[in-house]
Amino acid sequence: MKILVAVKRVIDYNVKVRVKADKTNVDLANVKMAMNPFCEIAVEEAVRLKEKGVASEIIVISIGAKQCQEQIRTALALGADRGIHIETEGTPDSLSVAKLLAKVVAEEQPGLVILGKQAIDSDNNQTGQMLAALLDRPQATFASEVVVAADKVSVKREIDGGLQTIEVDLPAIITADLRLNEPRYASLPNIMKAKRKPLDVKTPEELGVVLSNNITLVSVEPPADRKAGIKVSSVAELVDKLKNEAKVLS
Amino acid sequence: MDFELNEDQIAFSDMARAFAQKEMEPHAAKWDQEQIFPVDVLQKAGELGFCGLYSPEDVGGLGLGRLDSSIIFEQLAMGCTSTTAFITIHNMATWMIADFSNEETRQHWCPDLTAGQKLASYCLTEPNAGSDAASLKTTARKEGDSYVLNGSKIFISGAGATDVLVVMARTGEDGPKGISAFAIDAKAAGISYGRKEEKMGWNSQPTRLITFEDAKIPASCLMGNEGDGFKIAMMGLDGGRINIATCSIGTAQAALNHAIQYMGERKQFGRTLENFQALQFKIATMNTELVAARQMVRLAASKLDHKHADRSTYCAMAKRFATDVGFNVCDEALQIFGGYGYIKEYPLERYVRDSRVHRILEGTNEIMNVIIARRLLLKDAADIL
Ligand SMILES: Cc1cc2nc3c(=O)[nH]c(=O)nc-3n(C[C@H](O)[C@H](O)[C@H](O)COP(=O)(O)OP(=O)(O)OC[C@H]3O[C@@H](n4cnc5c(N)ncnc54)[C@H](O)[C@@H]3O)c2cc1C
Fold it and tell me: Which GO terms label this protein's molecular function in UniProt (chain A) (predicted)?
């Protein structure tokens, strides 16, 4: 079985996000970029499935500017076999990404597509779901455990207030949650080997996809500065404040 | 000429930074305080390739250049100075065995050393031969198919916890030409270890005295030929000096990062510290000098990679400059933290303690000046460009 993993280049999670002075977007000048952490978890899961003998080949795909190839190389260093870069200007919206992925799925026929549950930059949480809808395939989102058995996959999902286990038929779409696994480090020799793994570059035109432009970014505001806290003198005062001011206790 | 990191170097340093942030930084204070030598983390580092960066590939090394290695070590040093410094010494000793030992010895030690499964120490300094290393007194007497060692080595990093010792000992006349180098099983009969030294810094690695009393080792332990030892020791140190200088750069960068962040948080006189121009100028100077030092280290590494005739001079200049600048940056960062910088809850005092020794070991900074001046005073030699 082939596994297709989609990875997104985003601002590094360690970086303090700055908003541009004109509030048109987050300032990405002089900012460290990295693979979206949820995508890293998706890659790790695919690699583990390959190590278990469930998967035979891992294809990693990223969509965006040329620099996305850095993240594809990272995934190749982590254990993916080959990469596909769909070069676009700017960052296409979720639906466009899902349409592009759907074309690649049609070409490659993977048994599983694994994505991160969301990207930490735009926090949309919709690409995986849209892809499943476009392909009319089952989806298992927020995965915290994935077990493949013959033509089915059983997925433990993180839902509000607990865990839910569902079983879906293959081929299927899975989105990875935080606790699915802890990604490994790419070893230095594997980083060197990744350079020699194949990486195809395609364009949306070649795939016959017209990028939609359904969303306009109106403005970006930084969150309000946190106000300094106060010290309470006793547990009784704290409980009182939690009850009457914060109203989180009743 | 291009001063930009290439794609590989970016990928290497990203990985090294992630490793340092997750596997070293959270534990560095504990390792320091409780004097823990984190052998498990060294093994993990070995699995990822950090233990044989510039050793050749046929013994499991990565065959990288010194410039690439410096870029990687710098990121590691941001997580834990002392542990990274040991990793660099291990890399140096491993490379020496891989480059100068016979095939049998290389294959015996190097695959485990490059994998981080075994560890190596470098043994040059003696109680009465520090800066004047060529006056060392430890002897290696040839007896049939063996050498018999007598003498002692002081301040040996890792000693007592390492598996193989690269030992410089006298096989012939007085002075550098009578010295030979050996790769010796650290557990051989006749080798004993002193108590762990109590140190100002570098507490995540043991430092001990080693005594050789009629320690009999196979003649095949000899590295190169008899009489090559001092040359081999100095070739190891060229790279070692770049490594130690790099550890200063990484530590100083970590200190500066902390200081800049703190300036945005700490308020006095109704304003955060970053509003005071005196402190703005301080960090501007710290960063400027740090960048200069980093470039100097990378220049020396590049000279070594290209086997430039003046590589040793460049390594000496880089070591002198970067370890002085690195220490000053750590000290100034501590100053920006005020009293909190002096308290162990913050890493600043550890940075100062750990980076202090970089100005002393692998040749003191005074000895670096001796090396640089000797080259400058060479009659009729080319300019150093
Ligand atoms: C924590 C630690 C770890 C170490 N690890 C190792 C190791 O793993 N392997 C190893 O072999 N060694 C190691 N060393 C030893 C280190 O390399 C020596 O301490 C160093 O070379 C200086 O030698 P010394 O201590 O004998 O000082 P000395 O040589 O006695 O020097 C004393 C002072 O005199 C100055 N001086 C000496 N000669 C001159 C001169 N000609 N001109 C101007 N000034 C001069 C020196 O710069 C210094 O300031 C370690 C030391 C420490 C502290």
Answer: electron transfer activity
Q: Please indicate whether residue B122, judged by its CB atom, sits closer than 6 Å to ligand 1.
A: yes
- For the question of residue B362 being annotated catalytic, the response is yes
The superfamily CATH assigns to domain B230-377 is Butyryl-CoA Dehydrogenase, subunit A, domain 3 (1.20.140.10)
Whole-model pTM: value is 0.92
Angle at B119 between CA B113 and CA B125, to 5 degrees: 120
Residues in chain B where the model's pLDDT stays below 50: none
Distances in Å between the Cα of B331 and the Cα atoms of B80, B250, B282, B347 are 17, 14, 12, 12
Mean model confidence pLDDT for chain A: 94
- Residue in the structure block whose two tokens are 């048994």: A111
Give the distance, in angstroms, between the CA of residue B299 and the centroid of all CA atoms in the same chain: 17
Per residue in B154-165, pLDDT tens? 999 999 999 999
Euclidean distance between CA atoms A40 and A182, whole angstroms: 9
Q: Which residues of B17-47 are buried (b: 16+ CB within 10 A; e: fewer)?
A: bbbbeebbeebbeebbeeeebbeebbebbbe
- Helix %, strand %, coil % of chain A (to 5): 30, 25, 45
Query: CA nearest B179: which of B110, B133, B120?
Result: B133
pLDDT of residue A11: 95
**Is A70 part of the contact surface with chain B (CB cutoff 8 Å)?**
yes
Where are chain B's structural domains?
7-119, 121-227, 230-377
B19 to chain A, any CB pair closer than 8 A? The answer is yes
Q: Distance between CA B130 and CA B124 in Å, rounded?
A: 8
Tokens 């050789």 sit on residue:
B212
Element (H, E) at A184: none
Q: Which CATH number fits domain B7-119: 1.10.540.10, 3.50.50.60, 3.40.50.300, 1.10.10.10?
A: 1.10.540.10
User: Minimal CA–CA distance to B225: which of B164, B294, B154, B142?
Assistant: B142
Give the position, in ligand 1's atom list, of the atom nearest the Cα of B363.
Answer: 21
Query: Which range, A84-98, A215-229, B290-304, is most confident?
Result: B290-304
Angstroms from B236 CA to nearest CA on chain A = 23
Whole-number pLDDT of residue B225 = 97
In whole angstroms, what separates CA B103 from the centre of its chain?
Answer: 26
| CB-CB contact of B79 with B19 (8 Å) | yes
All structural domains of chain A: 2-245 (3.40.50.620)
Which tens digit of pLDDT belongs to each residue from B252-279?
999 999 999 999 999 999 999 999 999 9
Is CATH 2.40.110.10 the right assignment for the domain spanning B121-227?
A: yes
Whole-Å CA distances, A208 to A100, A202, B46: 9, 11, 47
Whether the Cβ atoms of residue B117 and residue B233 lie closer than 8 Å to each other: no
